[in-house]
Write a structure and sequence with these properties.
There is one protein chain. The chain has 3 domains: about 150 residues, Triger factor/SurA peptide-binding fold; about 110 residues, Chitinase A, domain 3, CATH 3.10.50.40; about 110 residues, Chitinase A, domain 3. It is about 45% helix and about 15% strand. It is built from 13 helices and 11 strands. The strands form 3 sheets. A 4-stranded antiparallel β-sheet has the order 4-3-6-5, sandwiched between helices.
Length: about 450
């Protein structure tokens, strides 16, 4: 059941790059809030020779405040949050400057793909996404610039951190022993789905009661057996409604305490009572509960194959994408065979096997590759996908539920340890880059 050696070329697991200054993660790729003030823009800091404006900080600050509020999280004092956001922006600018100095460039075709992926994740067309961006007070160039910056940062971090992490068998043994010995609830992981009925900040009592009734009806439907994900997509006011309200698997300390307390004694698959937060009324469904770091015994595996074209001075991302798009059409029309094409042109270690990657466990491939693969149906071929390693064409052969062997569980543990060490390496590296920069603070952001 092990994959033929693709050697992970272009497919190794990606670090979940963490917080940086102030514990804040890089912002979600989303347009700026419509209520950002356009006046009173001034310089709050200078990073080397590049200014940081109050507008940049305000835009990020409002976005984070909105996200925390919608998730029912507790907001820190605004001055403190503004300082954290400013430091996050400074850290990102130092990294973007390093990327520019070292020749990292992001072609338009990569930004196009990121835009398409963002639209698909939110279940809309690119045209609908662009209309929404404009309607919310942002501009398309500003949104695409954010996408470009995020891609640039990811490529820089991958390149810089790859050589910093090495893992041996003794470390894996120790990691497994540590994970099996954990018993504190703070180390537990949960995955929740949420429906949010938002309550405006200045809502009247009559409005609150009407919204409560709406939430109670949704709760009754969910408990009666209606599909929770569909209910969330059609009725939730939260930004994650496009994913069926799924908030993601994470340790309990990364969820609002309100959610943790409400789900503590709720079994997997069950639904909580109606919850009230400053954002509104929440309905939660418990999707998963587990001890942090321990892989599930039963997982969904994908059996796929791919073709990889590496980009460089002699092959741009746009040219590679066009070539693979043409090959995809020929394969689907029966004019070419996927495996034969992979053997002839793929620049990955799996080429000898016709691009066959074998059975793969969740988290085995880099996120951008895995997200596209997971969305395919058996037999389906993806559109060309750009990753940090080049441009891919993926075909899903089959999918199955399987129980992991001891060796496979050990390999997942190795990947989890690698992610952990990459997070730690990122913090050290980001501090090094920040320390080398000249930063002059001006007027405090407001």
């Amino acid at each position: 059941m092990a994959a033929p050696t693709a050697h992970g070329q272009g497919l190794r697991i990606s670090p979940q790059l963490g917080g940086g200054a102030g514990g804040l993660t890089a912002p979600a790729l989303a347009p700026a809030p419509a209520n950002v003030s356009r006046d009173a823009n001034y310089i709050v800091a200078v990073v080397n020779t590049e200014p940081v404006t109050s507008q940049e900080v305000r835009t990020r600050l409002l976005r984070i405040e909105r996200q925390l509020s919608q998730q029912g999280g507790r907001l820190p004092p605004r001055d403190e949050l503004a300082r954290q956001v400013l430091e996050r922006v400074i850290v990102e600018k130092t990294q973007l400057q390093l990327a520019q100095e070292t020749g990292i460039r992001v072609e338009e075709v990569a930004v196009d793909q990121a835009e398409e992926n963002f639209a698909r994740q939110n279940e809309m067309t690119v045209a609908d996404l662009r209309r929404k961006i404009v309607a919310e007070g942002s501009t398309l160039p500003q949104f695409r610039d954010e996408l470009r910056q995020q891609i640039t940062l990811t490529r820089l971090r991958d390149r810089e951190l790859e050589s910093r992490v090495r893992i041996n068998d003794l470390e894996v043994d120790q990691f497994i022993r540590e994970q099996q010995g954990l018993g504190d609830t703070a180390d537990q992981e949960i995955n929740l789905a949420m429906i949010l009925v938002e309550v405006p900040e200045n809502a009247t009592e009559a409005q609150v009661q009407a919204l409560r009734q709406r939430a109670e009806k949704l709760l009754a439907r969910a408990r009666a057996g209606d599909d929770f994900n569909q209910l969330a997509r059609e009725n939730s006011d939260a930004p994650d409604r496009a994913s069926g309200g799924v908030l993601g698997r994470r340790t309990v300390d990364r969820y609002p305490q309100l959610f943790v307390d409400a789900t503590k004694s709720v079994r997997v698959g069950a639904i909580t009572d109606l919850l009230r937060s400053p954002a509104g009324f929440h309905i939660l469904k418990v999707l998963e509960k587990s001890q942090a770091g321990l892989p599930s015994a039963v997982v969904t595996q994908n059996h796929a194959r791919h073709i990889l074209l590496r980009t460089g001075p002699n092959l741009t991302e746009a040219a590679a994408r066009d070539r693979l798009a043409d090959l995809r059409r020929r394969i689907e029309n029966g004019q070419a065979d996927f495996a034969a094409v992979a053997r002839d042109i793929s620049q990955d270690g799996s080429a000898r096997a016709g691009g066959d990657l074998g059975w793969a466990n969740p988290g085995q491939f880099v996120p951008e590759f895995e997200a596209v693969m997971d969305a395919l149906k058996p037999g389906e071929i993806s559109t060309p996908l750009i990753s940090r390693f080049g441009v891919h064409l993926i075909q899903l052969i089959e999918r199955r539920e399987t129980t992991l062997s001891q060796r496979e569980q050990r390999e997942i543990a190795r990947n989890l340890l690698r992610e952990k060490k990459l997070d730690e390496a990122y913090i050290d590296w980001a501090q090094e880059v920040r320390a080398r920069a000249y930063v002059e603070y001006r007027e405090a952001p407001r």
